[in-house]
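As a warm-up, study this chain.
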Amino acid sequence: MINPSEIRSQFPMLQNHPELIYLDNGATTYKPNSVIQAILSYYNDFTSNVERGDYETAVKADYAFEAVRQKMADLIHAQSSQEIVFTANVTSSLNQIVYGLRKQLKTKDVVYITEGEHASNVLPWFRLQEELGIEVEYLPVDEVGRVLLDKVSLKENTKVISIAEVTNVLGTIQPIRELSQLAHEAGAIMVVDAAQTIAHHKVDVQDLNVDYLCFSSHKMYGPNGVGILYGKKPLLDALEPIGLGGGMNARFYREGRVELKEAPHKFEAGTPNIEGVIGLGAACDFLLNIGLDEIEAYEKDIRAYFYEQVKDFDFLEIYNRENAFGPITFNVKGIFSQDVAGYLAHHHIAVRSGNHCAKLLHHIIGTDQSVRASLAIYNNREDIDQFVKIIHEISLEKAIDIFF
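Now compare it with the structure written out below.
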């Protein structure tokens, strides 16, 4: 059973700021001591570049770095660590996939996304639409952005379905396994953004039968600046790297011929974020030591408690009432979302306001501004009770007065 007090004791940010209620975990999570210590250990004990040196500390860094690749493979049940590419974040992973597919796509090929996607899963496809003449289409969804499988009818020349497993604003869980089947029956590939999933419930890429999957370290209690790109090995072998430089080539010649290394290394040009990758390994250990099934059950319980406390507030417009997972996303009627966030911040409650980088979502929920209160394993009922007390006292005058 999860002990929230024991978990909170592992996070220096919570210990150093006991007044703070942090409900912006969809943007980034706090880091436990184990992650911070892993990074410090690299700097204090074996700072070296990786895959470049033959001396003791360099070899130790190599082992530590590659061990995390295997941990990531185990975390998502990949067949091999050779299916794991280190990137900077989900955005860079998705850009690598999209632009790496450039030579495999052509005019009139169709890519399906949803209107609930983050910009990182929209804008790269828009660029290929402009440059190659591919067509970006939208899967049919309901009022919380869930794909309506019985209304999906893929065009004959569909090449890609690219979608977030859990949407970043509403927390809607998409039917990934079923969409993968539809994609494969159409001869298309399945790309999944798991940024809002990976720290909250188990991900099994073989069970879901996805072709590519991406997530970021900083949303799973790890350091910033590290992302993961998973791809089935034959697909990674066929994917063109978009970055060139040291570390990813086997040989190059005076006349311009270049021999690349095998995947995953052909995608990792330049010195990687070594300390970040090592910290990500510690974050993975943190999650697995608690247990992802236990985390999912605890967070669903906290989310249900949260919703129960606010569901009858008639001054709130809640956009994801039907969801059992993810954030509570709302507006206070008559008050601009950023003013609501400012009012909450004045009372030491951190939330996200605005469009959350999902600038097509208004086609689904009818507004491009909202407040997102997103949860993590260290949140408890006391956090929710304080949020409810403060939000219940909000008024337009109080929200504006804090700025003057």
